[in-house]
Amino acid sequence: MGLINDLILPQKADPFVVDYSALITEALANSPDITTNATISVWVKPCGVFGSVLAAQDCHYHIVIQKESTSVAYIIDGGSPVMYSGTIGTTFHSLLGNVLAEIAGSASAYFSQLHCISGQIVNADRFGVATEDKWVPKRYSGPWGTNGSALLFEDAADMGKDSSGGDNHWALSGVQTLDTPTENYMVFKRNFFLLGTTSTASGYTLTEGNRRITLGVSPYGFLGTWWTLPDSGKWYWEFYHHTRYTTSGVMISGNRFVCSVYTTNIQANPSQSGLTEFREGNTLGVAYNADTETIQLYRNGSAHGSPVNVSWTSAALYPAMGDWVEDTATSVRANFGSTGFAYTPPTGYLPLTAQNIEKEF
Question: Model's pTM, two decimal places?
Fold first, then answer.
């Protein structure tokens, strides 16, 4: 056998772009009955409590569940099958929900490319392919079988629509997003407090796909994201203030804001005061130019204050949101672009996705 034939070359990935996901935080429900032999393939980005297997919540995992009679195994990112000994249930959604509860902590997640195949066991390599450094989606075009379905989440008004042609629709309550395995957006990290602790923020909640923090009357704390801000490039994101006394902006890992808004002030070095008050219903736009080490803030689409220079620190920078101790409950939601920005970013500024960051470097 010749040298060329002896080489084991990495597969070339199908340039398949996943356009949409469904952010589902309620229980999965109303899917067809599962057959004796069946396969479920889905990409998930968990966003509930931390799981024992899928602990990271800043990436999309590919899960294939194979059911052969009463024997069930799951495969993560094209790896080896792992036997599942929990409750199976009688429907596709019950088996999927039960497996996710065991490995991801809950079934709250960003879901994309959910394929349910009835009557047969389908291998993971029909849905994904290994590239040189990761497992990526591969187009699946059927068959799905009598009770099967393909949920691609392309219709924002009908998230449970079956695109397989079999009319096996699900009843799902979710939000259509752009956060997918091929365009992975930044999110906040549960319990990762840049200022405060889980004790000082007792009772806080992180909801809406790890993008909204809510604190009670007395707790305080500021959450950071899974990723630090890049060292180069131009980046834009937004914070929507649900309540009046809320703080959001950019912090360093040493528990200090380098640029944030609070009432009529910009907390920075130096600070800026006497500005239009940030209140409930306002959107804070953050335009971070890593090349010039400056941040320009925006209030409802208009420049808010003057540019803030952050070159004085070499510490890692994080988007941050939360609040100090107040006499009212507070809530703020981050928007990194996965559901569309409220205001047009400045020219040349990109959303914080893993793919955009990889291109920059």
Answer: 0.92
